[in-house]
Amino acid sequence: MIDDDVNFLKELAEMLKLSGYEPICVSDALKAFGLALDINPDGILLDLKMAGLSGFLLADKFSRNNFLKDIPIVAMTGYFVEDAHNILLSSCGIRYLLKKPFDYFEVITKIETALADADKEGIIRKKKKIKKYLREN
For labelling alongside 6, which of 32, 52, 78, 87 has CA 20 to 30 A away? Predict the structure, then answer.
């Protein structure tokens, strides 16, 4: 989870833990990119409006990296301008959007949809094979 609002991250992390997820919170976009390279997450919750590097630019950076480009990203925003955001979302590889404020069920549903779609596309299985290979070698 990447958001520059630390309190929001803590609340969202608690909610996700109750649903069986293992969230990792990052409040700095550039650090988040490096961490994603290290841990290879199954999915990313990404705030679009952050100080420094915006979520749009970070998502674009993920989409241009061969190792990270297939990780499903669920964008989060409280500042949604439909036409402008839809163009930006699709251009940087974001297929899922949560509009703040959202409720618990919206978050879980969107995450499960993104992960299920990734699994259908073979992304999760491919990542598990990579992790198994790295553990064995």
Answer: 87
Instruction: Output the pTM of the full model.
Output: 0.82
Residue 91 domain boundaries: 6-136
1 falls within a domain? no
Looking up residue 44, the CATH number of its domain turns out to be: 3.40.50.2300
Identity of the amino acid at 31:
K
Per residue in 62-97, pLDDT (tens digit) is 999 999 999 999 999 887 666 666 667 777 888 899
The DSSP secondary structure of 64-127, one letter per residue, reads: T-TTTTTS-EEEEES---HHHHHHHHHHTT--EEEESS--HHHHHHHHHHHHHHHHHTTHHHHH
